[in-house]
């Protein structure tokens, strides 16, 4: 049985996906610059993670703002409340799952593939799947238990 996805769930996942596009962009830029400067694999992986952090935050916030403005639902209070519900769990999942996965997968693929762009893309794709699964489980728990939509 196929269940229809709500507009709120679709927008939420688009925002997360857009945040991931920011992470990919930031990681690729930082990784490329690091590799061209002759940095060690360890420093390159740390810079890839830093680039992913900066890019994901910027792109996610821009997307969230856009969706709320488009739906004429934007208010500073709503934006702040959504961030208060979202940020602690997203940060916990990011620190506990996404970035460790990204770091270790990046290091593994970099040592096996020796190509920064492909290894970063593969590592980010897998780390993102882990994060997306966790954040959607949280979104469903919020909706079913507290009737709260993100």
Walk me through the structure.
The protein has helices at residues 7-36, 41-70, 76-113, 116-146. The chain has one domain. Helix 1 runs antiparallel to helix 2 (41-70), helix 2 runs antiparallel to helix 3 (76-113) and helix 3 (76-113) runs antiparallel to helix 4. It has 150 residues and is an all-alpha fold. It has 4 helices and no strands. Helices cover 86% and strands 0% of the residues. The radius of gyration is 17 Å and the shape is elongated.
Order of helices and strands: HHHH
Poorly predicted runs: none
Estimate the global geometry from the Cα principal axes.
elongated
> From the helix content, strand content and strand pairing, which structural class follows?
mainly alpha
> What share of residues are in beta strands?
under 5%
Count of DSSP helices? 4
Tell me about the largest β-sheet. none
Number of domains: 1
> Termini separation (Å)?
25 Å
Calculate the mean pLDDT score and round it. 88
Helix proportion range: over 70%
| Number of E strands | 0
User: How large, in whole angstroms, is the Cα Rg?
Assistant: 17 Å
């Amino acid at each position: 049985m196929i269940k229809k996805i709500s507009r709120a769930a679709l927008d939420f996942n688009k925002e997360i996906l857009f945040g991931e596009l920011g992470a990919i962009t930031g990681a690729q830029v930082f990784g490329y610059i690091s590799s061209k400067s002759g940095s060690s694999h360890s420093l390159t992986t740390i810079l890839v993670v830093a680039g992913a952090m900066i890019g994901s935050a910027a792109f996610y916030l821009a997307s969230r703002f856009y969706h709320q403005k488009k739906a004429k639902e934007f208010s500073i209070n709503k934006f702040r409340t959504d961030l208060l519900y979202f940020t602690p769990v997203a940060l916990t999942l990011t620190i506990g799952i996404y970035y460790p996965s990204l770091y270790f997968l990046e290091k593994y693929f970099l040592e096996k593939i020796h190509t920064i762009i492909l290894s970063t893309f593969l590592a980010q794709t897998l780390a993102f799947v882990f994060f997306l699964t966790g954040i959607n489980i949280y979104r469903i728990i919020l909706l079913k238990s507290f009737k709260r939509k993100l």
